[in-house]
Every structure is written in C-alpha cells, then in structure tokens.
Amino acid sequence: MQTPNPPTGPTGQQIGVVVDRVADGVVTLHVTGEIDLLTANVLGERLRENLEPASRALVLNLTEVTFLGSAGLAEIVSASQTGADRGAKLLLVATNRAVLRPLEVTGLLSLFTVYDTVDAALADTGE
Q1: What is the CATH number of the domain that holds 120?
Q2: DSSP 69
Q3: Is there a contact between 68 and 89 (Cβ–Cβ < 8 Å)?
C-alpha cells in the first residue's frame, strides 16, 4: 500500500511507506525518503494503523531513509511503546548513517533491536 500523494519536506523530498503483511500478526513497513517535521506524521499514521491488537511484530525498514529528524524519532518511540503495551515488538532495519546516527546521539539506539536486513528481522519473529 503506497501512500497517495505523499507530503514533501523542506527540501522537496517525499516520504513513501509501503506496507507488506508478511504473516499473521507480522507486518513490514518499508520507508523511503526523509522523515522530518513535515512528513513524520505519515510514518506515525502507518505505524499506528499496523500496530493492531493482534500484532506480534512490526518490522520498520529504514534502509532507504535519507534523513531522520526528531519528529521521526518521536514517532518511532511512540510506536515502540504502543507495541509494547499490546505485546508486539518493533524491530528496526537500518544500515545507513542518516538513521543510525540520530538514534545513537539521542541514546535511543540502545532501546531498539536493529538489524542489517529485513530477512534477519523476520527471522527473529519466527517468519
């Protein structure tokens, strides 16, 4: 499910979110573009839509994200808390500095399990 007419951030970069239902209770969100003040709400909406009460895991693929600002970090932390409240794990897939550095400097990296590939994250869910 591609976001229709995705919003643009300050540099004109769009955010895209593609949802893939991998198995019962396991969803992967593939995010592209910049997650900033103007686009973080799109990510937040997709995360909330896919953290259903029956969710076991949500894999957030950030390998194609080119910028992750504080608003995006806030959405990810909120989704992680929502998932924990519902018994679902939020697993991050990230390999690039644009994502890993903000997580590291804010101290949030230690709160998440971060994988190099979607397959590795899915293996941890049993899929």
Answers
A1: 3.30.750.24
A2: -
A3: no
**Does residue 1 surpass a pLDDT of 90?**
no
Interacting residues of 22 by C-beta distance below 8 A, sequence separation 6+: 28, 59, 122, 127
* Full domain range(s) for residue 72: 15-125
When pLDDT is averaged across residues 63-80 and rounded to a whole number, the result is 97
- Categorize the per-residue pLDDT at 2 as very low, low, confident or very high, splitting at 50, 70 and 90: very low
Partners of residue 11 on adjacent β-strands: none
Model confidence over 31-61: pLDDT tens digits?
999 999 999 999 999 999 998 877 899 999 9
Separation CA 51–CA 56 (nearest Å): 9
Read off the tokens for 101.
């550095």
- Calpha distance 73→42 (Å, rounded): 13
Do 71 and 36 contact (CB within 8 A), yes or no?
Answer: yes
Beta-strand relationship, 113-115 and 26-35:
unpaired
| Mean predicted lDDT score pLDDT of the chain | 89
Cα separation values, 106 from 54, 109, 120, 123, Å: 31, 8, 25, 28
In a domain, residue 1? The reply is no
